[in-house]
Amino acid sequence: MADVTLTVDDKKITAPAGTLLIEACKSVGIEIPSFCYYPGLSLQGACRMCVVKIEKMPKLQTACTTVVTEGMIVATDNDEVRQARKAMVEMLLGNHPLDCPVCDAGGECELQDMAFSYGASESKFIEAKNHKEEQQWSPVVYFDRPRCILCYRCVRVCGEGMDVWALGVQNRGVSSIIAPNEKDHLECEECGMCIDICPVGALTSGAYRYKTRPWEMNHVGTICTHCGDGCKTTLGVRRCDTGMEIVRGDNRDKSGINNDFLCIKGRYAFDFAHHKERLTQPLIRKNGKLTPATWEEAFELIGKRFREIRDEVRDHDGGSAIGVIGSNRTTNEENYLLSKFARVVLKTNNVDHHRTADFPALAAALHGKPGKTASMREVLNAPAILLLGNDPTNQHPLLAWQIRTNVRLRRAKLYVINSAPIKLRRQAAGFGMVPAGAEAKAVAFLAGDDSLLDSLLDSKASDSMTRDAWIGLRDKIRAEQNMVIAFGSELRGHDIEKLVSFASTLTGAKLICLGDYANSRGASEMGLYPDLLPGYEPIASADKFQKEWGNLPAEKGLSLPEMVEAAKAGKLKALYAVGSNPVGRLGIDPFVFSKSFVVVQDMFLTETATIADVVLPAANAYEKTGTYTNTCGDLQLVKKAGEVTNTKPDFEMMVRIADAMGSDVSGLVPFGSGTHSDMGQTRGAQSGEADSHAVWLEAHNLEPKMTPFDPMAILDEIQRVVAGYHVSRVNLLAGNDQHLEIAESGASAIQNPELIVPANDDLFSSGTLGRYSKTLNSVFENKSADAEVAAD
Amino acid sequence: MKFSDEFEARFTEMLTHYPTRRSALVPTLLYAQDEVGSLSDEVIEELARRLDLTELEVRNVISYYSMLTTKPRGKYNVQVCTNIACMLRGGEELLDHCKKKLGVGHKGTTQDGLFSLEEVECIGACSWAPAVQVNYDFHENLTKEKMDQVLDEYKKKLNH
Ligand code: SF4
Ligand code: SF4
Ligand code: SF4
Ligand code: FES
Ligand code: FES
Questions:
Q1: Which residue among A165, A190, A764 has the greatest number of ligand 1 atoms within 8 angstroms of its CB, and so is best to mutate?
Q2: How many whole angstroms from A786 Cα to the centroid of ligand 3?
Q3: Separation CA B119–CA A50 (nearest Å)
Q4: Sequence spans of domains, chain B
Q5: Is A266 in the pocket of ligand 3 (CB under 6 A)?
């Protein structure tokens, strides 16, 4: 749009026509105070804090609702304006309890800030203040009515932003109040957006209220450890008896891909870290019972047994006697190290993880075709979005938020094809309901196979579409340009290949494959597969890694179900499960492993840990440093925030085990400086040849890492050798997300689609981890209690 | 839930008056209240469904208008104006009188369910202040004695 020029406080400024005055001022550093205005939400004009003087207009105007016009002359801070604002603050304080000393928002309250700026310390009001005790509206949401300044931000973010519409305004005038949808409580998605957006301490969270003061915490921006979307969450931490306690999660700096958004999990479900069942001591099975032991004892035992099993069976079984299962929540560095440790130290390709989406199929289909995947940020701006399968509202809350926001603010066209009437249909320009399992057929139909149309018509669904409606929907979808296509685990293997080839017939279409956990994509990319190495390099053509890592077992290894079979047949002598609970999550009979030597690294005594011979207490992703790759392929930095004494990151434990097995640790983790022959050797260089890692570090202005426990050393190696990961380190460290190019990956390999087991988590569950979150459990119980009442 | 045919006819007609369904809410609430006596949970649920609103939205609107009520009132709702014109001409005394006579306070309902009492703002009858509105009927230029007569007549009405 054309620019208009106006004068603000004697400064000439320009802004695109249609810009709100408050935004135009902000863009040149003039801050206009506001309570009810919130970018992206509908205009309210309720608080009148933003009043300014505009020449030729008789009264003060609200800058949050006034659009800039050519030649406008504005004063934002003259006596008249200041007087008006002061009066507004005085009015607000007239009914405010001023209990700042005990208020959660104290120290970061917008009303305090305004009172500070405009100093309404005297009041003409002598009336008694309206008082009402605080109310608990849900396990998460509390309301302190007297503190509310009626800005209606909460009402709008819940309705417009979340599409939940659980908050309303009742009564009028001085007796106006914010009210929850179920009279005295809330029935909602418990996202806490209303709490976060509240400028004062009227809405507070069960997790944080009365726990601490904002200035007593340190704040660490890291990535949420729950779903695969990769929201940035700023964790407020405080010293406690057992290390560092996480007391709060929010996203105040809005620097992440999620901007303002967090769902209940990112905001509140960090409490598993201090669950009373958290393991803080290694356990060794003695006389049939898991018994506390020292770290030295544990590492020594594991080192000895792993080594015996490896060396004993190498003669006849060829490395097939050890199985390794990785995690969807450990960092890329840990996943890479585990993949390498298995192949280089344990000499096995029996590596797998709980697969929730078919990333290898995407990599295979996009091999050598750059620019075909979308980042999470792109979902916010794409002119059109096609959603195939999945239920983002429950399984990918950030994705759902991006989609809703895009539809609301930029009028993106959303097309939904699903076997259930998922909530996002409410934003959809086209919704095609298909029978369960027919998503792949829908793709084939979109691509032009009319013979499949009949199989899309759902005779059971009352709102089933007609043939013509399907053809109409297809025409619309095909006409879209620069569309983002997000697909769930309903599509696997060759179906993904077909989708990719359909997408390539559209102009500018980009794909997103939806996996379930925080680092599912990372687990995939770092090679936690029996037949794939990091960067989707097939084992069969492993030259690159032969050179980097040294001798690798040549045969492809066992998948998870094959390991179970091998265990049944007595051939799997050892199982090493890092941060995963296959027994609990995949319904594996625990007795299968009774003859194997089982080592589990986890936070809790999970179903898998209970049958282990050694259990090592692990740190979680909030307690360590590394990187995560979200489901779109955006790489982000994970930073250490919390700490529980006597737990260790999985990274360190792997290195310690390798050491206890007598392996040369420097061959596993590139650390130390210099180019002495040993370091070069272990990295595949010929004696005397330059150390390729050192050369790379130098070229990238990076220092060699000093200890083998520094995950950044492996990040160096990942960036050097894993295709697509060569993004800017500075950007990464600055906390920015960077989209990776999957097209650069290896040729990948089509996997057995049955190996994918969707987590089917909803908003209030999160795999094994979710069971140890008090917040998630309390919401869960609350919901089921409600359900029972309704059934009476 | 079931409404009378008359209500249904009005409701259908009302929908044709507005560009969006939700706009019909306020008049519909009034009709429903007149018919049912109050805006019960059941009524709220039904109207929310019919007008594509959440129950919360319907409650928000009800709470805004003092003429709408979620609690059952007496058969005759005595609304005494105490706004400026009526106040100057004895509205407040009239209200006190009614309180004593009916034995209930502001927004109270007599035990027999016959009368409820309410102090209201200007009802637009200032020229004939003090004024009282009972359901939809106006009574003007009132004194305590006249007020008694009015109340007695309503009582009698019931006995017929
Ligand atoms: S927690 Fe989220 S869904 Fe619930 S009322 Fe607040 S904004 Fe709405
Ligand atoms: S509760 Fe908070 S966000 Fe909601 S209206 Fe009151 S002050 Fe504003
Ligand atoms: S949407 Fe996903 S990544 Fe974001 S806060 Fe929720 S669980 Fe965490
Ligand atoms: S910010 Fe402009 S009226 Fe509230
Ligand atoms: S003041 Fe009572 S009717 Fe107007």
A1: A190
A2: 25
A3: 37
A4: 5-62, 76-159
A5: yes
Within 8 A by CB and 6+ apart from A433, the residues are: A418, A419, A420, A421, A458, A461, A463, A464, A465
Rounded Cα distance, A499 and A388, in Å: 10
Q: Do B63 and A166 touch (CB under 8 A)?
A: no
A165 and chain B in contact, CB less than 8 A = yes
Collapsed DSSP state (helix, strand, coil) of residue A444: helix
Do the Cβ atoms of B54 and A171 come within 8 Å? no
Percent of chain A with pLDDT over 70: 95
Rounded CA gap, A527 and A534, in Å? 4
Amino acid, single-letter form, for residue A612: A
pLDDT per residue over B99-156, tens digit each? Answer: 999 999 999 999 999 999 999 999 999 999 999 999 999 999 999 999 999 999 999 9
Q: A375, exposed or middle or buried, with CB in 10 Å at 0-12, 13-18, 19+?
A: buried
Domains of chain A: 3-77 (3.10.20.740), 96-274+769-792 (3.30.70.20), 305-356+521-663+714-740 (3.40.50.740), 359-514 (3.40.228.10)
Question: For the residues A495-507, what does the mean pLDDT come to?
Answer: 97
Three-state helix/strand/coil letters over B73-132: CCCEEEEEECCHHHHHCCHHHHHHHHHHHHCCCCCCECCCCCEEEEEECCCCCHHHCCCE
Gyration radius of chain A's alpha carbons: 29
User: Is B83 touching ligand 5 by the criterion CB < 6 Å?
Assistant: yes
Amino acid A692: pLDDT:
87
The Cα A552–Cα A538 span in angstroms is 12
Instruction: Provide the CB-side half-sphere exposure for B5 (13 A, CA).
Output: 0
Q: What SS3 state is found at A382?
A: coil
Q: What is the ipTM of this complex?
A: 0.85
The ligand 3 atom at the shortest distance from the C-alpha of residue A224 is 8
Work out the mean pLDDT of chain A and round it to a whole number. 92
Alpha helices, H only, A173-230: 193-197
Q: Which of residues 38-77 of B touch A (CB under 8 A)?
A: 54-57, 59-60, 63-64
B76-159 belongs to which CATH class?
alpha beta
Query: What end-to-end distance do the CA atoms of chain A give, in Å?
Result: 58
Which residues, 6+ apart, have CB-to-CB distance to A167 below 8 Å? A154, A155, A158, A159, A178, A179, A180, A181, A186, A194, B56
Of A575, A530, A595, the residue nearest A322 (C-alpha)? A575
Q: Which residues of A touch B56 (CB under 8 A)?
A: 165-168, 179-181
Q: Which residues of A touch B54 (CB under 8 A)?
A: 165, 181
Compute the distance between CA of residue A229 and CA of residue A262 in angstroms, rounded to an integer. 10
Q: Is this structure's pTM higher than 0.90? A: yes
**What CATH fold (topology level) applies to the domain B5-62?**
Arc Repressor Mutant, subunit A (1.10.10)
For residue B91, the ligand 5 atom closest to its alpha carbon is: 2
Q: Does A466 touch chain B (CB under 8 A)?
A: no
Q: Which residues of B touch A167 (CB under 8 A)?
A: 56
Dihedral angle of Cα A496, A497, A500, A504, to the nearest 10 degrees: -160
Centre a 10 Å sphere on the Cβ of residue A760 and count the other Cβ atoms it contains: 13
Q: How far apart are CA A402 and CA A650, in angstroms?
A: 33
Q: Which of A165, A166, A170 minimises the CB distance to B59?
A: A170
Rounded Cα distance between A599 and A614, Å, is 5
Q: What is residue A494's predicted lDDT score, i.e. its pLDDT?
A: 96
Check: CB of residue A724 under 8 Å from CB of residue A535: yes
Q: At what angle do helices A650-660 and A332-340 cross, to 10 degrees?
A: 20
